[in-house]
Design a protein that fits this description.
The structure holds two protein chains of two kinds.
Chain A (H helix, E strand, L loop, with lengths): L24 E10 L2 E11 L4 E5 L6 H9 L6 E6 L2 E3 L4 H7 L1 E4 L11 H5 L14 H14 L17 H13 L5 E5 L7 H16 L3 E5 L3 H7 L2 E6 L2 E7 L5 H10 L10 H4 L3
Parallel strand pairs in A: 3-8, 3-9, 6-7, 7-8
Antiparallel strand pairs in A: 1-2, 1-4, 4-5, 9-10
Helix pairs in contact in A: 5-6
Chain B lengths: L24 H14 L6 H17 L6 H26 L7 H16 L9 H26 L3 H20 L4 E3 L3 H8 L4 H28 L7 H24 L1 E2 L2 E2 L4 H19 L1 H11 L1 H6 L4 H27 L1 E3 L7 H11 L11 H20 L4 H30 L1
Antiparallel strand pairs in B: 1-4, 2-3
The chains are: A alpha/beta, B mainly alpha.
Chain lengths: ~280, ~425
């Protein structure tokens, strides 16, 4: 796929520098229902390389469902998913991982009794033909990954995860996600349980991921965090995309208004600011 | 974009840097050891101290306790229970329980007894009967584990049912003969074979060479990967300790004799150490072992990481049953027979106590195979000592129970200390 003939309707009326670049992830017209509950209705969504895209919305707006469609936990009823310009069908977490999509869930999914290295390689241990673990290689690569992400607060990568602080644990979970040549990292409420300094630490890590060229989707309720990290903000309301905002050209009030009273629209040019009069 | 917050990472309130980290050599080793003890990270220290205390106590209490003959006795007495306890460690690592092991051990013993029986039975060699018993018990384990892992019935209930069912099978099969005498020499060897003095030394030497080779290859691997070798001294100390223990044990065993016939290193000792090494390797150095710890620590995390959790559970219950079968064969060989009471008494609770006394957590994810070895040694030594010193048999239960309670209490307190110093 060369230069895209199509641009997301919500963006086509806006001036953007990189509008011709193929987005890393592109969802078109995603619809998903659970029985009689319509979780997502005709949602468009995109993330570019090197971009932090925030996904916000009230409880039940469909954020988690949308992310689960990307992660392969759910399969959309209709709509298309493009990754790197290719249409893909993601039928399970393994498909997602194969494409280079990694999800860091809210409850982290770390094993407290194992150390940092063991958690980083959980389920993907380096081993020889006799299933013997190659500890030195794993330790070395973990150290390299931590260094490249500038995660410097963890004293020893051989200490059990149980002894780490919340921010350090989140760093381990994020580092694990990016260790596998992933191209897109999805972070579900990464700062929900953290203190101020630890939140800063994790947000800095998120920005570094984008600087390294990864696409990042961050789900959060905390608008302060989002305005500090995200390049763009997609607002979902009642299962519909009600606007995509440039962080630099938007105020928190506009986003709050969209979250609580945004009007879904697919008409080109109206998205964001038009739907949310300042 | 603003990157003002990037440099702030260093401000996290992690554990304060520790000066001991940099200390090397023997003094650093001592430093770390004392720091570990202060923070509640006791390792196997309490159990080793307890064992020494028990040995010293009974040496004064009974004249015929601290003899080389009795040392060999204790090894043979602990072998069966320790085999069961090795399997228990794997089950406890998952946070599950296996109550069926004592009677699965009975099934293993019954199988070899029936298969070797000349005349009324097939009269097979023990070399065929023993693998057959192990296969049958592995099947039992896979059925019990399958019900736990695939259907989701709690392991307590599944294995409690197994406890009753396998006891029933033993009583049913032995109702008429009452007991079967084991005549096959291979089976009886597991309980009563002694190596010659020279073979004993050879085995001790082999153990030391293998242990050194494995330790050093680990160090070489670390150096190749450019990782700082943590403490060369602790490796040297460990090799020295293994050498002292191996040659010491063989020396003591070689001094024993019964009515003028010299004894030597019992085969049971080699079996205990062999399984200690093999199972420790399985638990600590293989992907399977790593996944067992992961499932025990956080089953949901393990599942999300792509680990086949039901498969791990089934295999662990199979290991538990196989170790029970091996233990059962040794226990039967000790008395050269199997009767309707086999697998009863305190066998089940001794095996679980052995694993727990050694420091294996009942809640999963924490424990090591050597815990079962040390716990088995404590239980066998206490019961041997109390018997030798002519105490009332009731005392054995009271003392074993008290040690169990003390060990778990100590471990709980130590863990709390650890949590406090860790965060």
């Amino acid at each position: 796929m060369g230069a895209p003939q199509w641009a997301p309707p919500c963006l086509s009326g806006r001036k953007r520098k990189n509008v011709t670049e193929t987005p890393l992830l592109e969802l078109r017209g995603i619809t998903k229902s659970f029985g009689s509950v319509q979780a997502l209705t005709d949602v468009d969504f995109e993330v570019r390389r090197g971009e932090v895209m925030a996904l916000v919305g009230d409880n039940g707006a469909g954020k988690s469902t949308l992310v689960k469609c990307v992660a392969g936990t759910h399969t959309p009823d209709s709509g298309q998913i493009f990754f790197d310009g290719q249409e893909v069908h993601i039928h399970g977490p393994r498909d997602a991982a194969q494409l280079g999509i990694e999800v860091v869930y809210q409850d982290l999914a770390l094993c407290d009794n194992l150390d940092v290295v063991q958690n980083m390689y959980l389920g993907r241990e380096e081993h020889d033909r006799l299933q013997r673990l190659k500890e030195p290689i794993m330790e070395q690569r973990t150290a390299e990954t931590m260094k490249s992400l500038a995660v410097t607060t963890i004293r020893s990568i051989r200490q059990p995860v149980a002894t780490l602080s919340g921010g350090q644990r989140q760093s381990v979970a994020v580092a694990r996600a990016v260790m596998w040549n992933s191209k897109l990292v999805v972070l579900d409420e990464p700062t929900a349980a953290l203190g101020v300094a630890q939140t800063e630490q994790v947000l800095a890590l998120v920005r570094r991921l984008a600087e390294q060229g990864l696409g990042v989707i961050i789900i959060s309720h905390n608008l302060h965090d989002i305005f500090e990290t995200a390049h763009r903000i997609t607002v979902l309301r009642l299962g519909r995309n009600v606007g995509v905002y440039e962080r630099d050209k938007t105020t928190q009030e506009q986003v709050v208004h969209a979250i609580t009273a945004g009007v879904p629209t697919k008409v080109a040019g109206i998205a964001s600011t038009a739907a949310a009069p300042a | 974009m603003t990157t003002a917050g990037v440099e702030i990472v260093g401000q996290d309130t992690g554990p304060a840097p520790d000066d001991d980290e940099q200390a090397t050599g023997l003094s650093g080793l001592l430093h770390r050891a004392t720091a570990d003890i202060r923070s509640g990270n006791l390792g196997v220290l309490p159990i080793v101290v307890a064992l020494v205390f028990i040995v010293v106590f009974f040496s004064f209490e009974a004249t015929n306790f601290f003899t080389s003959e009795n040392f060999g006795n204790i090894i043979i007495q602990m072998a069966g229970t320790t085999m069961l306890a090795y399997g228990v460690v794997f089950v406890l690592l998952l946070g599950e329980i296996d109550l069926s092991i004592s009677y699965v051990a009975g099934i293993g013993a019954l199988t070899v007894a029936e298969l070797q029986q000349p005349g009324t039975g097939p009269g097979l060699s023990g070399l065929i009967a023993m693998p057959a018993a192990i296969v049958i018990c592995a099947l039992i384990g896979s059925v019990q584990g399958g019900i736990v892992a695939k259907i989701g019935v709690p392991s307590f209930v599944v294995t409690l049912a197994g406890f009753l069912i396998w006891q029933g099978v033993i009583v049913y099969r032995l109702a008429v003969p009452g007991s079967i005498t084991i005549q096959d020499r291979w089976i009886n060897y597991t309980g009563s074979y002694y190596f010659s003095h020279f073979a004993g030394w050879l085995i001790a030497g082999l153990v030391v060479v293998l242990y050194s080779a494995v330790s050093l290859s680990g160090v070489i691997g670390q150096m190749r990967a450019g990782i700082a070798v943590k403490d060369p001294w602790s490796i040297a100390v460990k090799i020295a300790a293994v050498a002292a223990a191996s040659f010491g044990i063989v020396e003591i065993c070689n001094r024993a004799s019964v009515q003028g016939t010299p004894l030597g290193l019992p085969l049971a000792a080699v079996i205990i150490v062999l399984f200690l090494i093999v199972l420790t390797f399985l638990a600590k150095r293989t992907t399977f072992g790593r996944h067992v710890y992961a499932v025990g620590g956080n089953a949901e995390a393990a599942r999300r990481a792509g680990i086949n959790v039901p498969r791990i559970r089934v295999i662990v219950f199979m290991i538990s049953s196989v170790m029970a079968a091996i233990g059962g064969i040794i226990l039967a060989a000790n008395v050269n027979s199997v009767d309707t009471n086999f697998g009863g008494g305190t066998l089940l609770l001794d095996a679980i106590s052995a694993a727990v006394i050694g420091g294996t957590s009942l809640f999963g994810g924490r424990g090591e195979i050597r815990n079962a070895f040390l716990g088995g040694a404590v239980i066998a030594t206490v019961s041997n000592g109390l018997n030798t010193a002519n105490y009332n048999p009731g005392t054995i239960y009271i003392v074993t129970g008290s040690i169990l309670l003390l060990a778990v209490t100590l471990d709980t307190v130590a863990r709390r200390l650890q949590m406090r110093s860790g965060r």
